[in-house]
From TrEMBL:
Record-linked SUPFAM superfamilies: ACT-like (SSF55021), Carbamate kinase-like (SSF53633)
This protein's name: Aspartokinase
Coiled-coil region: none
Binding residue positions for ATP: 7-10, 174-175, 185
Keyword Nuclease carried by entry: no
Catalytic activity reported: L-aspartate + ATP = 4-phospho-L-aspartate + ADP
Keywords tagged on the record: Amino-acid biosynthesis, ATP-binding, Diaminopimelate biosynthesis, Kinase, Lysine biosynthesis, Nucleotide-binding, Transferase
GO BP terms: diaminopimelate biosynthetic process; homoserine biosynthetic process; lysine biosynthetic process via diaminopimelate; threonine biosynthetic process
Every ACT domain range: 265-339, 345-413
């Protein structure tokens, strides 16, 4: 018997009718003889609504309570789906993340899974049930408090469970047909990819392609879980994410990702002496803020500016440690820029093809987009641009590398 893990995202379970359609699909997998585990997200915009309600009560809700609140969304979905399956004569049991053995560290809002003890899930499967697990949540090993895995975290619940259960496949059902060469909501003629390597998908996700949470891809790569990203509204094949060596097509570029969730901070007039950068970034590391790009300018008169990007929501924590430190080291000031976006070009073929960055910068310059920061890895080039120009930048780069689906492009002409 094959073990199949299926994950349904928020839009896929967006209302009661969609939930019933998901139940039909799950019933089909169960009746087809698979041991089926289903991970569900909160319905539609439930998570946003819960965040908003808390924000209307408090500017800084206690993070323990916020986490418990947010897990409620997925619990509604899991029980409704179990009810819909029972209605179809399919035995089903739902479990919270904690009941399913998703053990995490204690970092509220972006906890990491440290262990999975899926005894109850396995027991219920062996009894012949479909098992439904609430996504996006776990329980802290140390504090025993309920945690959440960060936005988009149900993907990670699904892939981690697939790894722990030795599942044959992890299917991520979503509201698009698979992973595209760019966000199909911005680039209408973006092409669906048949296969993406873990490494490329890691870069795409880390650079803002929200179709898979980055940690889910990490789990997939570390435990060799094949991930099939596909639409919950059709039965067409989607995109497989797996090891580089299984890739058939050898494209140089996989796609363009963009991210509008970051801000840029600049510490001005920092004394250009050894140890200063270390002090700044050690202090930031203690606050659990994820720093992304870092640029240190050329110094003049013994002083320099250090800029870095960080998630916009983490600005208060970053400022709380940077402001006193800036005073201590006699820096001239701190400036925050919210009006930025990051555009990244990703592709394993870059390793062996020179000139990719030059072509990307050329495309941006022709489109009149100014580049504020640059960073690269062996398979990625990222630039920071003004947020107002992000769509223009994505379209220009997508176009320069001929990533469009010719058929879709012709149809829309
Ligand atoms: P779910 O609720 O199913 O988890 P998400 O909204 O988290 O869905 O992820 C799917 C969305 O990801 C798509 O609707 C699409 O707008 C966005 N997206 C961004 N980049 C890409 C990409 N390269 N390929 C496919 N989808 C992408
Ligand atoms: N409901 C959570 C979110 O909106 C988790 C998820 O959907 O993956 O981020
Ligand atoms: Mg998602």
């Amino acid at each position: 018997m094959a073990i199949v893990v299926q994950k349904y995202g928020g839009t896929s379970v967006g209302d009661v009718d969609r939930m019933k359609r998901v139940a039909d699909r799950v019933a089909r997998s169960h009746r087809g003889g698979n041991q089926t585990v289903v991970v569900v997200s909160a319905m539609g915009k439930t998570t946003d609504e819960l965040v908003d309600m808390a924000a209307r009560i408090s500017e800084q809700p206690p993070e323990r309570e916020l986490d418990i609140l947010l897990t409620a969304g997925e619990r509604i979905s899991m029980s409704l789906l179990a009810i819909a399956l029972a209605e179809r004569g399919v035995p089903a049991k739902s479990f919270t993340g904690s009941q399913a053995g998703i053990i995490t560290d204690a970092v509220h809002g972006k906890a990491r899974i440290v262990d999975i003890t899926p005894g109850r899930v396995q027991g219920a499967l062996e009894e012949g049930n479909v098992v439904i697990v609430a996504g996006f949540q776990g329980v802290s090993q140390d504090t025993k408090d309920i945690t959440t895995l960060g936005r988009g975290g149900s993907d990670t619940t699904a892939v981690a469970l697939a790894a722990a259960l030795g599942a044959d496949v992890c299917e991520i059902y979503t509201d698009v047909d698979g992973v595209f060469t760019a966000d199909p909501r911005i680039v209408h003629d973006a092409r669906k990819l048949d296969y993406v390597s873990y490494e490329e998908m890691l870069e795409m996700s880390a650079q803002g392609a929200g179709v898979l949470q980055v940690r889910s891809v990490e789990f997939g790569r570390n435990h060799d879980v094949r991930i099939h990203v596909r639409s919950s509204f059709s039965y067409t094949a989607g995109t497989w994410v797996g090891p580089e060596e299984d890739k058939v097509e050898d494209a140089i570029i996989s796609g363009v990702a963009h991210d509008t969730s970051e801000a840029k901070m600049t510490v001005h007039g920092v004394p250009d002496t050894p140890g200063v950068a270390s002090r700044l970034f050690s202090a930031l590391a203690q606050t659990n803020v994820n720093i992304d790009m870092i640029v240190q300018n050329v110094s003049s008169d013994g002083r320099t500016d250090i800029s870095f990007t960080l998630p916009r929501g983490d600005q208060p924590q970053a400022l709380s440690v940077l402001e006193p430190l800036a005073n201590e080291i006699h820096a001239e000031g701190i400036n925050v820029d919210d009006n930025i976006a990051k555009v990244s070009l990703v592709g394993a073929g870059m390793k062996t093809h020179p000139g990719v960055a030059a072509k990307m910068f050329g495309a941006l310059s022709t489109a009149g987009v100014n580049i504020e920061m640059i960073s690269t890895s062996t398979i990625r080039v990222s630039v920071v641009v003004s947020k107002d120009q992000v769509e223009q930048a994505v379209l220009a780069v997508h176009d320069a590398f001929d990533l469009a689906d010719e058929q879709v492009a012709q149809e829309s002409n």
